[in-house]
Structure to design on (316 residues):
């Protein structure tokens, strides 16, 4: 049998079919969550639709979900390779009634968190099928009710906060905030931006799934990035990890008196989507700007003004 180094999920890809099946069956039979996480990651990076382009964020989310589901299954007497027809629904019910353990949060897990955990559990069973360990699909017909509160309401865009926070940022942190809030970048895209990606008034962005797009930079963003020297030898403008950037930005929000309104970088990206929609009234153009594959996604990034159609209905 080919030896696999512990903690190296990609090495599972190179096992023979029989060796992979044995490894997966053994892990499922003993409720070995770390190995089942490796099997899931190996499947996601070599057998799923996106393959090696699966984002690290998705891999991390699914790994957390598998690490949650496996101990629950063991405690509940669920045989992972031969689950009962109601076991998927039982797990969803468990998630929907579980108290939230997030800082400062009360009540039960949010609908989005429940959906994320179920997606990870589904990925585990696709991985076990890929490994030849089982054909069971206990989550195939499971429906996770959506959150009735729109995401744009739960996490609205920053608006006036942007300019107020900018005055409490150093030059590099200000450039990062403007890349998210005015250029509409995901924070991961902004942190990966290089000097060579900027040509005139446009920035080449390598986004989710390896998709490349070119976006226009407003003069305020251009001025902010033009004053920066590369922070890394490869020309990248930032040498921060996501958590380092998040910590610095949260301090800036706190210094500006908006510590309670800090909601992460995504609300800054929604700022750009909302402002561009108000200027264009065109979801398609906003979606292209933000790098969305679907206009339905774009709608979740735009805060609509109240009575936005008052003028149009006036003479009905």
């Amino acid at each position: 049998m080919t030896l696999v180094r512990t903690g190296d999920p990609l090495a599972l890809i190179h096992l023979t079919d029989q060796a992979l099946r044995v490894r997966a069956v053994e892990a499922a039979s003993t409720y070995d969550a770390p190995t089942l996480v490796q099997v899931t990651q190996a499947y996601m990076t070599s057998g799923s639709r996106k393959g090696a382009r699966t984002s690290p964020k998705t891999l991390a989310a699914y790994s957390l979900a598998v690490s949650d589901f496996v101990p629950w299954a063991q405690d509940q007497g669920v045989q992972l390779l031969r689950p009962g027809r109601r076991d998927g629904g039982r797990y969803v019910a468990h998630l929907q009634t579980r108290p939230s353990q997030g800082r400062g949060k009360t009540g039960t897990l949010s609908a989005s968190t429940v959906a994320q955990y179920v997606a990870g559990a589904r990925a585990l069973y696709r991985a076990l099928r890929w490994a030849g360990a089982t054909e069971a699909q206990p989550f195939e017909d499971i429906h996770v009710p959506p959150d009735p509160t729109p995401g744009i309401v739960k996490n609205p865009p920053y608006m006036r906060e942007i300019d107020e926070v900018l005055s409490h940022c150093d030059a590099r942190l200000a450039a990062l905030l403007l890349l998210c809030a005015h250029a509409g970048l995901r924070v991961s895209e902004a942190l990966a931006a290089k000097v060579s990606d900027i040509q005139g008034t446009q920035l080449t962005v390598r986004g989710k799934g390896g998709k490349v797009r070119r976006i226009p930079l407003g003069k305020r963003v251009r001025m902010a990035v033009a004053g920066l020297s590369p922070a890394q030898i490869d020309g990248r403008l930032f040498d921060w990890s996501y958590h380092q950037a998040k910590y610095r930005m949260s301090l800036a929000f706190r210094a500006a008196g908006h510590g309670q309104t800090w909601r992460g970088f995504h609300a800054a990206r929604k700022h750009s989507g909302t402002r561009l929609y108000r200027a264009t009234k065109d979801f398609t153009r906003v979606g292209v700007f933000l790098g969305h594959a679907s206009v339905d996604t774009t709608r979740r990034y735009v805060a609509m003004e109240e009575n936005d159609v008052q003028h149009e209905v006036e003479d009905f």
Q: What stands out?
A: The chain has a mean pLDDT of 90. The chain has two domains: 9-147, 161-299.
